[in-house]
Amino acid sequence: MWPCQPDDGGVDEHFAVLGYNVKSSDMAGVAQKLEQLEEAMGSFHQEGLSQLADETVHYNPSDIASWLESMISGFNPIPEFDSSSDPFLESSASVNSQMPIDLDFGSDLIAIPGKAVYPRTQPPPPEQNQPQPKKLKTSIAAVAPPPPATPLLVDSQENGIRLVHTLMACAEAVQQENFKLAEALVKNIGFLAVSQAGAMRKVATYFAEALARRIYKLYPANQQDSAFNDMLQMHFYETCPYLKFAHFTANQAILEAFAGKSRVHVIDFSMKQGMQWPALLQALALRPGGPPSFRLTGIGPPSHDETDHLQEVGWRLAQLAESINVEFEYRGFVANSLADLDAAMFEIREGETVAVNSIFELHQLLARPGAIEKVLQVVSELKPEILTVVEQEANHNGSAFLDRFTESLHYYSTLFDSLESCGGGGEEAVSVQDKVMSEVYLGRQICNVVACEGVDRVERHETLEQWKSRFGSAGFEAVHLGSNAYKQASMLLALFAGGDGYRVDENNGCLMLGWHTRPLIATSAWKLR
Amino acid sequence: MDMDMDMDMDTKKKCTRFFINDNMDVLIEILKRLDEKSIGVAACVCRLWCALTRNDALWEHLCFRQLSPPREGVRTVVAALGGYRRLYTLCVKPVLTRLGKRKDMWTTHEVDLSLSLFCVDYYERLFLAGAATPPSSLIFLCKAG
User: pTM (2 decimals)?
Assistant: First the structure.
């Protein structure tokens, strides 16, 4: 993808930027010898390598050739054998389930072996006696050496660390506006990313693309294509639990706020396909005492084609409501930005209980100064019984580019990790296409966070703590989401494959959904003080 | 499976033959107590049994029999959204299996969740009416184990 072009005869520029002096003319020979060494090690029983069990770390990168010679001469000569086709893809497929991608960047960065450029020699595990699969199993990844014709450095773990290091170095170069260095690094990232497997490869590729766009000023076109975005979001909805979690927890809060009320009005800032509302309508239909009369106002962006998308969605919801005997009224508003709305437009009626709902919409307002304050002002004028908000739990809106980059790298790595567990290969029900679409959906967000600026940068995620202070200043106080919401959310997550990895946490009455130890989205509910 | 009592000539005058197919209320009562696999098997016996197993009341019983009497209006809503048989196959069974629960451990939370997912599926079908691709919001439930 990003071809590597070392200087002829001079010092290899990729290693040069990382601080090493290695002649590029030596590289091919060294790599070939490394390969031979790996093959030699792979064909030995564990006992035969006891002399290598001690650390043999090379300290002078430019003298690798002679060190390797001495290593190789310690082994008997090995017979040639065929390489399988495309070892990277095969090994990455088999590795998916085993590779716990360590994304704790703090410790990884400390652990970068500064002077030992080449992999530590480790005795392979005892099973390693077959001559056929020339995989040198480390504890983290299975890697197969490529065919002798194209020598490549293939230690996945080392490259993983180097990849993260390079990504960070590139981002730093961009922040310092040292674009020449950034350019060199971004090419290297692409090259390193290929040696990774699964989530790490995809994340690195998306971030590399976003960095490249920023460096070359090729900003992404069509970020605002709402129909395409909606389609991607549907796939994301189907593949993993984040949106379902958002809908179910927000609905539970709204349901509780509507208890005992006979005329209710929901204002949805994030209408899209209206997937949140069927479940609420059904819950209202079955509540003790019967359903209220239900009014829905949906806000959406202008559509690029002729269809009135908002009206279509409203019509389908009306059909559903009619089937389950819930009195239903719908209105759709097209708006470029939520800040264009004002309270009078909604025509709130006497005796009507209002709920305002926003799923992943509010952070976009932070791109324009004053917009979020205006919107919260309008919301408070509507005097809602409840305001339900779901947002990404991350700070991708820091003033320094490098901070945003680091945060989002960590965040999206975790998110992609969780996507891996949703399957998408073999006999999985979730198709590869769904998973890929979900990745594209997230990739667009990555691109926006990294490559865009100013009013174009709309993915300005902020943490729950930050939102708390904004809502506090606008006159709102938190409503605790009850245990019902928590139970439903936990149950929902248990239904998803990889359910063990997902965690629901309660945080001062707000619910957070995360992957292992990292919270990823937060649902909160608010009412006027 | 006629419960055709085999009798010898002496007692024949006193006993009457009993055909289960003539006593559908009894048959339905029996079928109501089966699990879904057995209902599936029963459906293969004859056309009458096949038709009876499609009776939604049977599946309603299967869905909620361990729970206290179902809430008001559940039946109308479920019927409108596609019926109990569909609810069971699409939502109840996968949810129970995935959560590793036995039917006597159902609570209202499982019921609520199943009904919500069922409703989302119905809504998706409204959108996709006539389209080639089936609705997939419940696809995460289909994955093995």
Answer: 0.73
